Amino acid sequence: MLGAAEIRQLAEKLEIRPTKKLGQNFVIDPNTIHRIVAAAHLDPTDVPVEIGPGLGSLTLGLFEVTPKVIAVEVDERLAQELPETIKRHKPQAELELVIADALRVTELPSQPTALVANLPYNISVPVLLHFMEQFPTIRKGLVMVQAEVAHRLAASPGSKDYGAPSLKLAYYGPARLAGNVPRSIFWPIPGVDSALVFFERTRENFTDRKAVFSAIDAGFGMRRKTLRQALAGWAGSAAKAEEILVAANVSPSLRAEELSIEDFIRIASHK
After folding, report:
1. Same domain, 120 and 34
2. What is the model's pLDDT at position 204?
3. Which of 84, 76, 47, 79 is nearest to 63 (CA)?
4. Around 150, how many Cα atoms within 13 Å sit in the side-chain half-sphere?
5. Do both 193 and 231 map to the same domain?
6. What is the dihedral of CA 85, 86, 91, 96, to 10 degrees?
7. Among 131, 123, 177, which residue's Cα sits nearest to residue 150?
8. Which of 18, 149, 155, 238 could be a cystine partner for 145, CB 3.0 to 4.6 Å?
9. Cα-to-chain-centroid distance, residue 143
């Protein structure tokens, strides 16, 4: 496991100054790494994919449980050093490294069964949803994200944090908060609080994802309006929106924030 001193030495060796552009905040506390790995509920048969492994502290933590890890890293300097770091600490470990922008990844060398990552905060939701869409073998995951985003991802209908991100992750299955993370365990120390979100893929959807997501975007694009008005553009007219809503057994006078993912799936299937 990498400690704070070794992480700083590695960064100095590579002449790396963590950048806000790439959302780089490295975890320097081994106890937090153990906590993340435990909260991911992995077993030795899992093949986790880690997005943004950085200097490898979480990667090494994952190797405590699983013999193989897929790592996706966009920073070439970090990617070149990662295999050496893993070899020093875990010589028997099998690292499959992909040097790419996570949002552009459409294939991986192995089929991942879990996603575990300290996600770059500026693109955390798009990356998470992209991987859930592209890799249906991912059955569960644990991500560390900005606390505000974590509460949105795990929010329930009617709550103040509930919105499009909540519903889009719920399309695949349930999500829940798995704890807060203090700022002091990062280097450099970020200006925001962080939290963990655990999620599972339990839903086998037969309604087109794009149709469901477009209905969600339309509903929350005008979240203060009733669904009859908010979905008018999406449906073609307010009258057509009402017809679809009634057919889906959803009251046209409700607002998007009051609907569950099941409601939106029914709405999309009746368009």
Report:
1. yes
2. 81
3. 47
4. 22
5. no
6. -140
7. 177
8. 149
9. 6
CATH of the domain at 222: 1.10.8.100
Exposed e or buried b per residue across 253-269, where buried means at least 16 C-beta atoms within 10 angstroms of its C-beta? ebbbbebbbebbbbbbb
Which amino acid is present at 69?
V
Predicted confidence at residue 18, as pLDDT, reads 56
Backbone angles phi, psi at 137, to 5 degrees: -75, -15
Length of the chain: 271
118: tokens are 């300290």
2-17 tens-digit pLDDT: 766 666 677 677 666 6
For residue 169, give the DSSP letter. Answer: H
Q: Which amino acid, 139?
A: R
Torsion angle in degrees (nearest 10) through CA of 212, 234, 263, 175: 50
User: What is the mean pLDDT, run by run of 10 residues, along the chain of 271 residues?
Assistant: 68 63 71 96 98 94 98 94 95 98 98 95 95 97 97 97 98 97 88 95 87 97 94 98 98 97 96 91
Q: How many domains does the chain have?
A: 2
User: pTM value?
Assistant: 0.92
**Burial of 136 (C-beta count, 10 Å sphere; 0-12/13-18/19+):** exposed
Q: Which domain holds residue 250?
A: 209-269
**Helices assigned H by DSSP within 154-197:** 164-170
> Residue 67: which residues within 8 A CB-CB, separation 6 or more?
44, 92, 93, 94
Q: Do 167 and 114 share a domain, yes or no? A: yes
SS3 content of the chain, % helix, strand, coil (to 5): 45, 15, 40
